[in-house]
Design a protein that fits this description.
4-stranded mixed sheet; 10 helices; alpha/beta
Length: 247
Amino acid sequence: AKAGNRSVSSACGSADVLEALGVKVDLTPAQVEQCVEKVGVAFMFAPVNHPAMRFVAPVRKRLGVRTCFNILGPMTNAAGAQRAVIGVFHEGLAPLMAGALKEVARVDHAVVIHGVGLDEISPMGPATILEIKNVAPEGEPKVYEEKTFSFDPQDVGIKRCVVEDLRGGGPKENAEEFRKVLLGGTESTAKRDSIILNAGVGCYVYGRTESIEEGCKLAREVLESGKATDLLQKWIDASQEIAATEQ
């Protein structure tokens, strides 16, 4: 379940893009659960899951810069995810985020990522990854192993790009680009490569693969098969049907 919001301190938020694609973003928690059960993916809209934040949003919008809420957002995923991939916009925030995750002791496996000025892995260059993993037996208090390492996209055959290759626009433009990068086939673009990289990390953290490298291989295979496009349409249809039944 992806947690997100409309644009606050950026040009376009995840909710804006999904809404432009046709996904119903303002589902209740019960409806989100239905959507996950039906198609395996759903969106948790921040104002629905954290109603108090509606008082903060206008202030953040007027400020137009990053604030502490950009750090708090990824830490307040209402799904209570035990495996998490979190990006930070400054490398120095990674230990802070990881420390908070360990203190709360909800996650079993998580990575905090900073890559070449971005809060994700990208083809622009190597990313710094701080990984924490619970090694305690099931049912016992969590004990975390922590390690920090560098991951270079070139190690999985992905070419370098510049930030202009990744730049998006408004909701409509980003929705069109999103559909393009999910199309099957072997075409390689910086945006497709970014999806492969970040999905690959997700596959590893979730436990589908034994390494990030294997995760990227799996992500590439799925993307090239066209299955991602099929799932997106199923998600759109399911979210609309679920929203309609509650009206």
